[in-house]
Amino acid sequence: MAPRARFDATAITLHWLIAVAILGLLVAGFVMTGMKPGSPQQFQLYQIHKSVGMLVLALSLVRLGWRLGHPPPPPPVAMSALERGAAHLAHWVLYGLMLAMPLAGWAAVSTSPFNIPTVLFGLIGLPHLPLPRDANAFAKLTHLTGAWIMIVTLLGHAGAALRHHFILRDDVLLRMLPRLERKS
After folding, report:
1. For residue 70, how many other CB atoms are within 10 A of its CB?
2. Which residue among 27, 89, 100, 137 is buried most deeply as judged by most CB within 10 Å?
3. What is the mean pLDDT of the chain?
């Protein structure tokens, strides 16, 4: 059986749903921390942020399971071993962050001295993790550090995809887009 030339529809859909959610989470994270503390708008944005973060966690678990059962297409033959290694590392860093960031956020909320409940999308209560309150500073630092690592890794990931498309002119980017083919 020949290797696939592109990702399947499930992988593409999960990739872009998670990507849009993560970009929204990063923007919301910086906006909400810059808002007037304790304002109703800040509270609402925090609740949305937590809800979407848990959605990213769930979708990422599905995506990871899908990836393990459905290997990605092979890299272009012309890609050097160093580039293949960097791409492989970046993908697994992103998977790790997609799991660790929501968990660190959940830990921060669970250990917050404010003890504010999380209600996912205003419908489902999320219990606090059984963690000691003195873990709050570490959880918040982990979440913030993870956000910056995510930003740097996403910029590298997007930059590499654009390099492949516009400079190397291969199909690396196109195989993660819905049914687009490069014109000769």
Report:
1. 12
2. 100
3. 94
The pair of structure tokens assigned to 136 is 């709050």
Q: Is the pTM for the entire model greater than 0.90?
A: yes
**CA 32, 35, 38: angle at the middle one, nearest 5?**
95
Q: What CATH number is given to the structural domain containing 128?
A: 1.20.950.20
Do 72 and 84 contact (CB within 8 A), yes or no? Answer: no
Check pLDDT > 90 for residue 27.
Answer: yes
Q: Which domain holds residue 132?
A: 9-71+82-176
d(CA 130, CA 114): 15
Is 122 part of any domain?
yes
At which residue do the structure tokens 């503390």 appear? 37
Max CA-CA distance within the chain?
60
Mean pLDDT of the 145-153 span = 98
Give a yes or no: residue 26 inside a domain. yes
What are the tokens at 77?
């033959």
pLDDT for 3 beyond 80: no
Do 102 and 58 touch, CB atoms closer than 8 A? no
Which helix (H) or strand (E) covers residue 119, if one does?
strand 118-120
